[in-house]
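User: Could you check the structure of this?
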Amino acid sequence: MRIVSVDLGARSYPIWIDEGILSHGELMLPYLPQPKGVIVTNTTVAPLYLAGLRAALERHGVAVSAVVLPDGERYKNWETLQTIFDALVDARAERETAVIALGGGVIGDMAGFAAACWQRGAPFLQVPTTLLAQVDSSVGGKTAINHPRGKNLIGAFYQPRAVLIDTATLRTLPARELRAGLAEVIKYGLIRDAAFFEWLEHRIESLLALDAESIAIAVERSCRNKAEVVAADETERGVRATLNLGHTFGHAIETATGYTQWLHGEAVAAGMMIAAEVSLRLGWLTENDCARIEGLLIRAGLPVRGPALDTDQVWQLMTGDKKVVGGKIRFVLLKGIGEAVVTADVPKTVVDAALAARLG
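Assistant: Sure, the predicted structure tokens are below.
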């Protein structure tokens, strides 16, 4: 078993990574204040893993109930959040009843936000079943729902007590979802880990083939990068903002297309390429580095262009993003592979040129 720690003082927590650990309910017991939990999952994941997780906990005397939500980013809203609260009421959940997220990033974000709100804060555990959730959204305590005019605009920072990553769940993941998750893996190489990016250039086909060793290394390395950044800047006042590489542009793509056409990782991949294009036009990124980024994304089966959107619409959506400070968009850009910077001092003409080159 691989173990990564997110070091947040008294609120530190472990990330366990291994094949088959979904059946090891005893790992969760120290993080359950009472032997009771409500599992939040969706219609896709429930038939695959709900019974196994429930049985793993019940074997150790934990009373378990579950709420099964519809699957998809378009359901990440107030109405679905209310469904979770209704289930907590029906289960007679108390303040010490654990909320357990079983699923991808949408489930983790909504279950975490529900836990943050339930009786002003209930214990929360993450059991991510998609690559994107395993390497990114399950770690770090960002929880949220979407607004029709912006992604993740309503939420809270609320850390889990523990994260249990069973890499075997990736075998049931659709190929498109696996590729989308690789966008977040590649992101870590771009923002702070050039050696990891080079490793990915050599192993991307192994990851697509779900080679067990390659997957384990990639998940652990990604979680370790995320954990280090979160420990240094939990509430995104500084270095944590670099984790948003590609996300300002990507969120605009998701919102403009109604959260139905592009997966989050696909939009982030296109967004990272737009950020690379801006960086290239500023003279910060070389042509060779830009080509390496594009080449790896293409080999991963990810888009390097966004949809045909009007640049004025993209600007309007970006100015409503969470990362706007003082009315200015903070862009995450690259000064090289492995070196991200956050800046609001980017000429609009440069961004417009990059958008024109990478949209449509």
